């Protein structure tokens, strides 16, 4: 929208300032258990100030450079360096003694009543952009930077003062509603994780197929006919991946060589998959992998298990436990059992080693399991896959909903500062008069120090 609504005016942030400054460096030597708050970029990375208990504290000498950055009510704090550059917090209430670090700019407006309106605009997307105006003003690769000149030059759309109040009130109402929806949506991944854990628990305990046993049992009681055994008895082989030196054995192509990072719960991942030559594979044939084998992580995330897929016809591995099921154990059932809570607890209790604990072949062979008949194993796998597919569908819908909620927040903010969120009132005092009053007020006062390009490094 190129034209502003009636009564609105364009202004630079500099036109509204009492002053802008940034914090001082080398205050890490003053860190303490008690003292003044020391606000850093991580404390405002959600566009609001974190709770006081999570902010670092500094015990300052009586005379120390940087006390000019004492934070007051209605100040605006901006991150000016780092990955979160352009984040912005409004200090809406009184705060204990607090200062900003060198990576944070402190903005103080000449008219404090504008702070809420200005803050909301600074966190809104620029015209036709997903970035805010602050984020778009940052420069530099890898570690973006905003200097104080960039901050002062940010362009703002200034509404009449009365309309500002209506806009911020409406924004508060809408953003609270959006936040409530977002909180509910954000809770879904944890609920889905618990759902999958409960499915696995029911599967390995026999509860998931109780009705199946009733419909397939001669006595119609659904009593479990499961064998108490261990993996050593139901696998034709349990061995370990190659543990020798590998740095000079990798090749551009050849035999896939799995490491622990290629084993994810229930699935093989080819991300960062390495390869070895056919000749080296033949030398370490003991650690070969075949479709249907169980690959179990030994250390790092011990016990995490996947089944080697059919399309990985030949492969080798390092630092994995390899379990090759016999005809008594369905590979997929073995995988879901190993990723269940009951198996994971056994893995945690039976790790060995001093410098780095790991899950070894001996512990895998002794791993206890209540083993259903093979036809019930297949039914359990079918039902678990069906329920997991349902949870994955919900998770994909969650990702879509989350993206839409994020866009909704930005859309609401963008509409607000185009003058489309609340109706204009022709009786409102125009913003031009407000801006002139601020200019007159500043001219009548002693000149405040409004920062300089070098102030970010003072």
Notes on the protein architecture:
The protein has helices at residues 115-122, 133-137, 148-152, 161-186, 188-205, 210-216, 231-234, 278-283, 331-338, 341-349, 361-366, 374-416, 431-444; strands at 9-12, 17-22, 31-39, 56-58, 76-79, 88-90, 98-100, 104-109, 155-158, 227-230, 235-240, 250-251, 255-258, 263-264, 267-268, 274-276, 288-289, 294-297, 305-307, 315-317, 320-325, 368-371. It contains 13 helices and 22 strands. A five-stranded mixed beta sheet has the order 12-16-13-20-17. A four-stranded antiparallel beta sheet has the order 2-8-5-6. The chain has a four-stranded antiparallel beta sheet with strand order 11-21-18-19. Mean pLDDT is 90; it is low at 452-458. By secondary structure, the protein is an alpha+beta fold. Strand 5 (76-79) and strand 6 form a beta hairpin. It is elongated. It has two domains: 9-160 and 429-457, DNA methylase specificity domains (Adenine-n6-DNA-methyltransferase TaqI, Chain A, domain 2, Alpha-Beta Complex); 227-371, DNA methylase specificity domains (Adenine-n6-DNA-methyltransferase TaqI, Chain A, domain 2, Alpha-Beta Complex), CATH 3.90.220.20.
């Amino acid at each position: 929208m190129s034209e502003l609504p009636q009564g609105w005016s364009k202004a630079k942030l500099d036109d509204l300032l009492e002053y802008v400054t940034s914090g001082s460096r080398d205050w890490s030597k003053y860190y303490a258990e008690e003292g003044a708050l020391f606000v850093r970029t991580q404390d405002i990375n959600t566009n609001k100030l974190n709770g006081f208990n999570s902010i670092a504290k500094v015990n300052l000498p009586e005379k120390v450079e940087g006390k000019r950055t004492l934070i007051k009510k209605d100040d605006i704090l901006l991150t000016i360096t780092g990955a979160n550059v352009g984040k912005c917090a409004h200090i809406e209430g009184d705060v204990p003694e607090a200062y900003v670090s060198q990576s944070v700019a402190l903005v103080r407006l000449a008219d404090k009543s504008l702070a809420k309106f200005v803050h909301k605009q600074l966190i809104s997307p620029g015209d036709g952009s997903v970035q805010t105006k602050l984020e778009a003003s940052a420069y530099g690769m890898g570690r973006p930077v905003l200097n104080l000149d960039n901050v002062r030059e940010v362009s703002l759309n200034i509404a009449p003062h009365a309309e500002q109040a209506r806009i911020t009130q409406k924004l508060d109402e809408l953003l609270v509603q959006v936040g409530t929806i977002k909180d509910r949506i954000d809770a879904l991944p944890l609920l889905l994780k618990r759902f999958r854990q409960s499915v696995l628990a029911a599967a390995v305990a026999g509860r998931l197929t109780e009705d199946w046993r009733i419909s397939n049992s001669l006595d119609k009681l659904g009593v479990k006919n499961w064998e108490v055994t261990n993996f050593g008895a139901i696998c034709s082989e349990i061995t370990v991946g190659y543990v020798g030196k590998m740095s000079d054995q990798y090749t551009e192509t050849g035999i896939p060589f799995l490491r622990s990072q290629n084993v994810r719960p229930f699935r093989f991942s080819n991300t960062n998959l390495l390869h070895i030559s056919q000749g080296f594979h033949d030398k370490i044939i003991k650690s070969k992998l075949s479709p249907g084998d169980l690959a179990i992580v030994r250390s790092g995330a011990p016990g995490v298990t996947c089944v080697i897929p059919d399309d990985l016809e030949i492969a080798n591995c390092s630092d994995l436990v390899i379990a090759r099921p016999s005809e008594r154990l369905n590979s997929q059932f073995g995988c879901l059992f190993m990723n269940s809570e009951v198996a994971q607890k056994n893995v945690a209790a039976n790790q060995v080693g001093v410098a780095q604990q790991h899950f070894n072949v001996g512990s895998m062979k002794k791993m206890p399991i209540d083993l259903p008949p093979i036809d019930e194993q297949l039914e359990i796998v079918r039902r678990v896959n069906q329920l997991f597919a349902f949870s994955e569908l919900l998770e994909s819908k969650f990702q879509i909903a989350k993206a839409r909620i994020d866009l909704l927040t930005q859309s609401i903010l963008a509409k607000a500062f185009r003058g489309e969120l609340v109706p204009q009132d022709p009786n409102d005092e125009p913003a031009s008069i407000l801006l002139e009053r601020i200019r007159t007020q500043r001219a009548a006062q002693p000149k405040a120090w409004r920062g300089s390009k070098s102030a970010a490094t003072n």
